[in-house]
Amino acid sequence: MKIKEYLTWKKENETFLNMLETEASILLSRMNEVFLVLDKIIYLEGNNLPTNDLQIFFEVGYSYVFDRINETKIYFKEYFFESKMLLKKYEVLINYLMHLEDYIEALKEKEKLTIEVSTLFDRIFKELDEILKKNQDFNLSILDEYDLEISKAIKFDKDVLTTLDIFALAYEEM
User: Fold this and answer.
1) For the residues 134-160, what does the mean pLDDT come to?
2) How many domains does the chain have?
3) What pTM, to 2 d.p., does this model score?
4) CA 38: distance to chain centroid?
């Protein structure tokens, strides 16, 4: 397992993670169960109890938080010029984009991502990215409109679970 690498990464990003925590950012809290599962696996590793499944969970979880935190840092530095106020203002849009990215990955895994749906998601990503890049004002109702469009294009499938869904279930089982 890459426990030492993860702990080093966490230490290197401690200031940024603490800032997100202090600001009560949903961009950090959305991953709470992933961090909790990683911490539990580290604890179990210390007691020589890891299994192959736990190793896989650790690799997936670490990769997930690594990518999402780095993505958040890009928004913070490049889109918002390290403004906590702008990050807070737009975090709901970033969270929505991350949720859609997670959902696309889950659809791909289940081989349920159609060209039509992919095109819809691409359009939504571009529109939201434009708002973020230009720091434009927005109304939260835009997310409801997107949800309506998505619900028309995709039928709900309880078997399509995102990484966050899987880690939430894993945390309940631990």
Assistant:
1) 92
2) 1
3) 0.92
4) 15
